[in-house]
Amino acid sequence: MDLKILPMTVQQQAADKLRTAILSGVFQPGERLIEADLCTRLGVSRPSVREALRSLEAEKLVAIVPNRGPLVPILSWQQAKEIYQVRALLEGEVAAAFAERATAENIKRMREALADFNGADKSGDAAGRLNATSRFYDEMLAGCGNSLIQEIVQGLLARITFLRSRSMSKTGRAKHSAREMRKILLAIQAGDAKAARKAAVEHVENACAAARSMFDTK
Amino acid sequence: MDLKILPMTVQQQAADKLRTAILSGVFQPGERLIEADLCTRLGVSRPSVREALRSLEAEKLVAIVPNRGPLVPILSWQQAKEIYQVRALLEGEVAAAFAERATAENIKRMREALADFNGADKSGDAAGRLNATSRFYDEMLAGCGNSLIQEIVQGLLARITFLRSRSMSKTGRAKHSAREMRKILLAIQAGDAKAARKAAVEHVENACAAARSMFDTK
DNA sequence: ACTTGCAGATTGTCAGACAATCTGATTATC
DNA sequence: GATAATCAGATTGTCTGACAATCTGCAAGT
Q: A99 to chain B nearest CA, in Å?
């Protein structure tokens, strides 16, 4: 077991706090982030805030415009579409790889996540729905045997959190989504890599279509 | 045409200089980067250097260990392997997409890059070889219609520059590589997406095998 | 040979400062 | 009245200087 304790530097904590704040919608897309503001809110100095912002900039969670400062980027449909394309490619690979190495324990946790998703859906708990989805995904991503893919996909998912939570609220989307996830799970259970890839790709494509309609109506 | 002039901030220039320095081998993998050193060398203050380092950290071109500071990361074989896996996936997609949208101009430039590659190979010019390869790739990446894939792949290529320049110097690898690139180009010229994907995947797989042997001998 | 402890080097973080730049509103001009 | 020029306030980009916390390697002690 790895007992290494790695110190939590101020800039790291600042970056973490800002990241969760952005992902949870405390800062809306398009909103400018005032450095001095963040300093007082976070209780740290400006250099630390600026370093944290540079990290988040590289993650594409904030954009820094020279002489205008940081802001939460607004995703264009073009960008969103590209993200879904890459997701389809990578998550298909993940599902295929995972189908060939999933343990009983893995599958059990995925089934639980799926059950929680349905529970959250029944009670109309949007946050719970997204949380269950994340657990479903993380199980695959962590177990697919390629930590680089995991990292990339999680980064992409972070960038479209806003879109996902919105499009998931569309009537019917949650039910469809649940069915698609079950299909993925069944293929994995059967150890059928090809079917798992196909199901995963379809799932992303459907999510993409659902997201697209968000842009049309908005 | 986009004529927007975006100011070159000090931290950006610092990041750029450091990036090229790392990629060109001025700083060797494993080497520690002393902030004070970088300050005097770049002629900028410590805050600027630290911000630049945070950006590069997110790009994985430097690793920052708390209380030890920045260093050029040493790639493990496991990491390298994962990078090649993702490259195969993404570059296959790029080649396939590009085969269906390449213009005559695109193909002309790729042919030129390939010719330059062979020229550089004959004269034993390692830097010229890598440069020509980059131009060959960039043409595809820029034209594949998905700027996100372009960005990801270029980031991955940057992380393995060191490996690539070494494995390319292996006897015979350059010749093989040239042949593989020609195969990709021919498929693209024919507009055969499927063949282009296959050729691109094979090219990456061969590059991966060549890289692997670097780890064994080293 | 193995621990202990110390000195030097380096990082993490802060406070304060100032010029450059942007923003929006006010004023001047046609 | 509408457009253009101007200006004050806000905000960022950058620097200097400082100091505690931490790491490293070496010397001393057991």
A: 17
**B4: pLDDT strictly greater than 90:** no
The more confident residue out of A95 and B166 is: A95
pLDDT tens figures, A116-154: 999 999 998 888 998 999 999 999 999 999 999 999 999
Q: Which residue in the set A54, A89, A146 is minimally distant from B54, CB to CB?
A: A54
Which of A23 and B5 is assigned the larger pLDDT? Answer: A23
Among A86, A146, A147, the residue with its CB nearest the CB of B149 is A86
User: Cα–Cα–Cα angle for A167, A171, A173, nearest 5°?
Assistant: 55
Q: Where are the domains of chain B?
A: 10-71, 77-217
Q: Dig out the tokens for A187 from the structure.
A: 């293929």
The Cα angle at residue A4 between residues A134 and B46, in degrees rounded to 5: 90
C-beta within 7 A of nucleic chain D, residues 51-80 of B: 67-68
Q: Is it true that domain B77-217 has CATH number 1.10.357.140? A: no
Sequence-distant (6+) residues with CB within 8 A of A135 are: A109, A112, A113, A116
Q: Which residues in chain A have Cβ-Cβ distances shorter than 8 Å to B151?
A: none
Q: Does domain A10-71 have CATH number 1.10.10.10?
A: yes
Is B67 in Cβ contact with A7 (below 8 Å)? yes
